[in-house]
Amino acid sequence: MSALPATILASTAGSIPFADSLAWIAIGAFVVAMALEWRGAVDPARYLAAGAWVVFGVFWLTMVPHYYLEVKSPIQTLLTLAALPLCAYAGYLLVRGRESLLLLSKAVAFMGLIYLPAETIPFVRTWLIETTASQTHFGMELLGHSPGIEEGSNGYQSRFAFDPDETVTGRTTYIIMSCTGIGSMAIFGGLIAAVKAPLKRKIAPFAIAIGVIWFLNLVRNVFIGLASPWGWFQQDVLVYVATEFMGAPADRTSYIVAHNFIAQSLSIVALLGITYLVVRLLPEVFEPLEEVLYILTGTEYDLADALGTEAPPVDGSDAVAASESASDTGDAPDLDVTEPDVDPESASGPETDDD
Question: Active-site residues: which are they?
Fold first, then answer.
């Protein structure tokens, strides 16, 4: 009986195509809801978006076994577990009439339209993975390491070919889709695309967000790719935690510490920093972020006021109207305004670990 839950989890972990189907259904529903709102059918848009949120939450629930059993990431496992109740609550709020959540739904739609094609179209996926592997290898070379790149167990030229007889752990890593940073890029791309603001004011924050995410992701990949084979964190206490509490092989400790604890924790800090840069340039992004906070806390927030950020500038016809109003009164108008995840793999010849 005790083995049954693990068996169910393991079988679910292999059902990634099913998870992809749920993701496409959710994003498709978000897109249709966005179109309905644009056509003025707000109530149908709310109900459809509510259903999309529930499907989106179920999608994340199906990913729990993957993050728990395969990736062994406490942070990602907890986040995916929390996703379903939070998404269901968002759907409930939409049904109850909170129309402002349609903006956040629109942002999720754009995020999916950016990420899912990259995840599911083979030649795009191949290009992203192998390009990231080449750039990571170049970063390693700058630090004096040149292992070369070979085909990994995922079928891409993305495995760093360290000689197991020359490294500390005998292990190496290879790049997978989540190592490319496309997930974080999609988040900011979706937020920026969803808000109402002139295109010229969206370009700078988008370019900054993508550029910073790309650079930090490259640094992270190099860090993990070197820490794993060279055993940077093979200290006894860390090995004990990895083996006794996480069920990992002892020689995988450096990978787990570098990836699951250090890199993922710093990624959260980096995403918060990038968010701050974006909202300074595009304050409209506060609106969907305030909706996220409302879902989490049930409290209304004015982030622009809390962070001392000025309101967005008046554009187009609003600017003309403001100017005319000011001319009547003699006053001047006030127009001021990131799980990449590197998978571990044994480098000991033909026999490799299925990590």
Answer: 179, 220
